[in-house]
Design a protein that fits this description.
Length: 144
Amino acid sequence: MNLKLYRELQIPKAVEAELRALPDEGARRALQEASWIHVQEVQDRRLVEALQLELDKGEAEAIALAVARSADLLLMDELAGRRVAERLRVRTLGVLGVLLHAKREKIIRSVRPILDDLIQKAGFWVGQELYARVLREAGEEHGG
């Protein structure tokens, strides 16, 4: 994510813990150095506990934080989490949506190489139909 695209990112402590546990040192360092990422304590523990009946702690806290802050947008890829967020009237966007937004705003030149890296290097799962649709929306179905 980039300040040119999103002014700030608020994450709950559970998501911070998940990010700090990543094996990638670069990702952990980026989290530490990103002044636009703000870690927040989630106050509504009852909502978190209720959400944890369906979701993991990070997703539950992220949704509870978005509800409490009347967030403009919740970045979440997990389908179950997105469905729960939408039930609570929280607008969601996944990483593929972020890539398309970045391309439309001319922050990145091409979605394809980033998408391919996500799949090949980060193990991000994207079905063939979705892959083709994202490239079509990015105007890159024929290479660029």
